[in-house]
Amino acid sequence: MNRAPLKRSRILHMALNGAADPSGEAEAGSGEKPFLLRALQIALVVSLYWVTSISMVFLNKYLLDSPSLRLDAPIFVTFYQCLVTTLLCKGLSTLATCCPGAVDFPSLRLDLRVARSVLPLSVVFIGMITFNNLCLKYVGVAFYNVGRSLTTVFNVLLSYLLLKQTTSLYALLTCSIIIGGFWLGVDQEEAEGTLSLVGTVFGVLASLCVSLNAIYTKKVLPAVDGSIWRLTFYNNLNACALFLPLLLLLGEHQALLDFAQLDSAHFWGMMTLGGLFGFAIGYVTGVQIKFTSPLTHNVAGTVSGTAKPCAQTVLAVLYFEETKSFLWWTSNAMVLGGSSAYTWVRGWEMKSQEDPGPREGEKSTVGV
Length: 368
Description:
14 helices, single chain, globular, mainly alpha
């Protein structure tokens, strides 16, 4: 059958609308959004994640280690952010119940049985956010990504120790690149006289807890009917309860009583903003999943996971007017490159397992 040649404008229209049928019948029959609109939505959501995540890091650095504040209470800062997240979850749940359709949020009510089921994960969650903030308190924002870069390595190690899952040689090679970048970064920080050994140890512990958090999350999700928001609510609620005795034990209540800006509206505004950013990261991640297919979500996540830390590091170096050596930048490139390579290798391996190709003895659909 002969088809009339397509005009250049028609081809452009097909590309922008994601249509594969020249006649446009498939386009008219499907409710799929135009390609350009979907691409714009994905770009906006990823950009929003960048702004939220990077802003939260800089804001937390200010709250934890600002010479103008002089507040030595990292546990209290973390506790308050968990409290804000808990109140936001409950507030949105109440709004969704009172105004159906206005907000898409699950119904939340306190169930002590569920809270106990989530408790083991909450302990790991507390370690994750506490060590993250302690790492940020003692190291510079520019080194923050390298200091917490061993999460992938711990994922591989814990998968083998706890789940008895083996890892391919290619994936192990990418992990070796990450470890090499981490050690080179530590070496360069020491050479420049800016290395904090305590902060680096906290970064390693944060990486371990992030990996454990991912494993325990899968085990606990059934207790909250698979709802990430219910899990967020119970996690932060448990964290608030567990942080209170920790505050007293570490004597941070005395540091708060001696804090000169305890009645400052600016201080409490910055603290609340930090909690809002922490909640927003989870919300934006959920929106990103909603607006993307599994493939585009993985691609967007991989690109964002590589480019966002790079942008954050460059901004930190420029903002704090730091000068870094070539080897220091090389360590960052190794960490980011190794992490991206690991994600690509694992994605390729999973795709190969799902689509193994024709088995022996089966007829091929191609050729004679």
